[in-house]
Design brief:
By secondary structure, this protein is an all-alpha fold. It contains six helices and no strands. The protein starts with a helix and ends in an 8-residue tail after the last helix. This is DoxX-like family protein.
């Protein structure tokens, strides 16, 4: 169980990151609305999608898990800040689901980074 929990956390965060890509890459109206409201449409939407894809892949590779976790903290930290400053907690009557998912992803990424702290390399 001790080895299964970290793997499960990595898979959960990777799935969250990767499942949102269909909204970003297909220009779903909700995604376009969000990135338009923060002034980053379309390049921010596509760039964020590519970065989330990279983070999701890095999380699943044992030697790069810590990089994926740090990247995810940065991406999702930015998303949380946008919610708190420009978007609001609730977007298009979603009941705050997008914000709550971002907070959960952020916390889980922090836990993943903590678990893998011995692998963090400083140059």
């Amino acid at each position: 169980m001790k080895k299964m929990l970290p793997l499960l956390l990595r898979i959960i965060v990777a799935i969250i990151l990767i499942q949102t890509l269909r909204f970003k890459f297909t220009a779903h109206p909700d995604s376009v609305y969000i990135f338009t409201k923060v002034g980053l449409e379309p390049y921010g939407r596509i760039g964020t999608g590519i970065t989330e894809l990279i983070a999701g892949i890095l999380l699943l590779i044992p030697k790069t898990t810590w990089i994926g976790a740090m990247l995810t903290l940065g991406i999702i930290g930015g998303a949380i800040m946008m919610h708190l400053t420009k978007l609001g907690i609730e977007i298009n009557n979603d009941g705050g689901v997008l914000f709550i998912t971002a907070v959960i992803t952020f916390v889980l990424s922090g836990v993943i980074l903590w678990i893998n702290r011995k692998d963090v390399k400083f140059f």
